[in-house]
Amino acid sequence: MSESPRAKRYIGIDLGTTFSAMAYVDAHGTPVTIPNAEGSLTTPSVVFFEPSGQVVVGAEARAAAVENPDLVVECVKREMGERFYSRAIQGRKLPPPAISALVLKKLKQDAEAKLGPIDGAVITVPAYFDEGRRQATQAAGEIAGLEVLDILNEPTAASLAFAYRDIKRKSDGQDDVLRLADETSKARIAVVYDLGGGTFDVTVLRIEGNNLTVLATDGDVQLGGKDWDMKLLNAAAVAFKAKHGVDPRNDEHVFQQMLVAAEDCKRALSARDKARMGITFAGKPVNIDVTRQQFEELTSDLLYRTESRIVRVIEAAGLAWSEVDEVLTVGGSTRMPQVIKLLERVTGKKPNTSLSPDEVVAHGAAIHAAIEQLKRYQTQQQAAKAAKPKSAAPPTEMKIKDDDAALPMVEVDPNAETVSDGIAPHEGGASTLSAPAISSDGSTIAEAELEEISPSEQYDANDATDVLRAIQTHNVNAHSLGVVMTNEDKTKVNSIIVPSNTLLPTSVTKRYGTVVPNQTSVSVIIVEGESDNPDQCIPIGKCTIEKLPWGLRKGSTIYVTFSYDNSGRLDVKAMEATSGASASTAIDRTNAMNQAEIGQAKQAVEKMVVSGSR
User: Fold this and answer.
1) How many CA atoms lie within 13 A of 375 on its CB side?
2) Alpha-carbon distance 284 to 248, whole Å?
3) Kindly report the CA angle at 431 between 425 and 434, in degrees rounded to 5?
4) Helices (H), 130-251
5) Which residues pair with 13 in a beta bridge?
């Protein structure tokens, strides 16, 4: 008798700048934090590359930074999306996704020690992460040997954890969980204030029964608890220099000691009104007493940066504070009393701190992983019942709504090998229209093997599965996406196709015209940002449309479609209207790792011995 297939297990991972956490949904349908091998619920996102070749991740790596600062990597999340980490490690330039993969490998190993084999995960990112950083996070998961089910925004994950808890509590003992979720009290507006170790997000959501819809999001990927630490460190260094005439920051080893002392002082000031920070350099000790009031005055500019984002996101959502029902805090840095005071002053409400700010994002990711697993199983069930494979659906007819606005030309790529004059204003005017349906490659899900065990078999009762089935989430994109255009006067402009805070998933098509007769190809620079000036936006790739039919007149219609999924991932397609021929386009991201590089990094990481101790 053949052995029954093993049910795949997926977990949720909060891949943080300073600390990471992981969770799973247990047999009772409850999200549970998975402790690491050292017994802690969070793991420092710090990597120590030992000279022996071993890699240490976690608290021991953090401690090693004092002795071996040149071999330790911290806050790599702030460099996701860059081609290489900012400094060489052991003479090598390493891509940030490969470094993050080592943190993920440690988490995966520790989870498997508790639960058995782990197949994949939902990994969270700041809502304000741009497309390049999301792709880098996806790559980190692949390099670590994880199937990345989804990339989920951290505020959405936190809100999901809160909403799931409420629905699950109300469902206990009820016969119809789905009906109960639908009939949960009136819609609530929640603001999620997420201040972690290295990034900040603020998000507005509508929570209505089992539906979570993001209305607007804003943030700063270079603002977090580490910046509060640096304020203390710099103030202490100035005091030391005033007394002894030397700057302790010039010694890298002392600098690392000061970082630890500053973080300890910050944490102490969250619990009491006064704390002491000690520095010893060149045999000269200095003890600096810091009051909470002094600390808050020292860091008031950082707090204001979060306040300005809060105000902006509420305006973007078109709401007044009187319409906000709840303020949720996420991230360890929200434990600082000044944060709570800020939120009470600005929002007029006492923040909801009922779930651990260190664990809530991982819990939401675990819930989302369970939901995605349930969806997969249901899809496979439906496919298995199909009598025969279904062919791909034909593209739907495009309905064009003309207006009088003329679109400028797309910038010509000067390095293109073929004539690539770009896109000119369409003679009949420009149009924004609903996206045409893009047919699949013809493969059908009915051909997939049924490998999963029913999710209901993994829980004690169907209630947990019903609660998971009830939850629905809807995100928005944090940044506008557009293409670099050139006007008739040769000035460049960012032509936005998908504006920020657009409900996802979305697909938007714009109508353009060719620039010259017989144009055979066109190259478009895709950018991310709000400014009309493309130089103030982030280029995320080049989209080349090739093999246009011969004989096209100037101004022939080209439809360019941006498709943006719920996880913030972008696909670009185009179609030439005269012949009906379509052309798919690939985005060549300048800083992204290609599949060959990801494969090589994965092989290297597989060979590395990663542990939590030396």
Assistant:
1) 11
2) 10
3) 140
4) 131-143, 154-171, 177-182, 225-244
5) 22, 123
What architecture (CATH level 2) is domain 409-436+476-565+569-589?
Sandwich (2.60)
How many CB atoms lie under 10 A from the CB of residue 229?
A: 24
d(CA 541, CA 562): 13
Interatomic CA distance for residues 19 and 21, integer angstroms? 7
What is the β-pairing status of strands 47-49 and 72-73? antiparallel
- Out of 77, 168, 226, 510, which one is annotated catalytic? 77
Q: Is the peptide bond before 499 cis (omega within 30 degrees of 0)?
A: no
Active site residue 194: yes
N residues, the chain = 614
**Residues linked to residue 33 through DSSP beta bridges, in sequence order:** 23
- Give the separation between CA 434 and CA 508, rounded to whole angstroms: 6
Domain 10-181+357-378+596-611, classified CATH 3.30.420.40, yes or no: yes
Q: Facing residues of 212 across strands?
A: 207, 473
Residue 571, H or E segment: strand 570-576
**Active-site pick, 79, 130, 142, 194:** 194
Q: Which residue in this structure is represented by tokens 């700041």?
A: 126
Inter-residue contact 109 to 610 (CB < 8 Å)? yes
Decide if pLDDT at 171 tops 70.
Answer: no
Query: Hey, what are 156's tokens?
Result: 């959405």
Instruction: Spot the catalytic one: 14, 201, 227, 576.
Output: 14
Fill in the DSSP letter of residue 248: G
Determine phi and psi for 423, rounding to 5 degrees: -125, 135
Per-domain residue ranges of the chain = 10-181+357-378+596-611, 409-436+476-565+569-589
Contact 119, 9 (CB under 8 A): yes
What is the number of alpha carbons within 13 Å of residue 435 lying toward its C-beta?
A: 18
**154 annotated active-site:** yes
Q: Which amino acid is at 348?
A: G
Express each pLDDT in 266-305 by its tens digit: 999 999 999 999 888 888 888 889 999 999 999 999 999 9
Active site residue 358: no
296 three-state secondary structure: helix
List the structure tokens of 535: 């130089």
Q: Which of 142, 150, 154, 358 is catalytic?
A: 154
- d(C-alpha 297, C-alpha 269), whole Å: 13
> Residue 596: how many CA atoms within 13 Å on its side-chain side?
0
Residue that the structure tokens 């006064």 belong to:
274
Within 8 A by CB and 6+ apart from 79, the residues are: 85, 86, 96
Judged by DSSP in three states, 94 sits in: coil
Q: Which residues of 16-50 are buried (b: 16+ CB within 10 A; e: fewer)?
A: bbbbbbbbbbeeebbbbbbbbbeebbbbbbbbbbb
Cβ atoms 74, 65 nearer than 8 A: yes
pLDDT tens digits, 599-609: 999 999 999 98
288 forms beta bridges with 277
Does 77 participate in catalysis according to the annotation?
yes
Instruction: For residue 212, give the nearest of 160, 290, 285 by alpha carbon.
Output: 160
DSSP state of 609: -
| Whole-structure pTM value | 0.79
Half-sphere exposure of 588 (CA within 13 A, CB side): 7
Per-residue model confidence as pLDDT tens digits over 42-96: 999 999 999 988 999 999 999 999 899 999 999 999 999 898 999 999 999 999 9
Element (H, E) at 607: helix 595-607
Can you tell me the distance from the alpha carbon of 200 to that of 218, in angstroms, rounded to the nearest whole number?
A: 9
- Beta strands at 55-57 and 47-49: parallel, antiparallel or unpaired: antiparallel
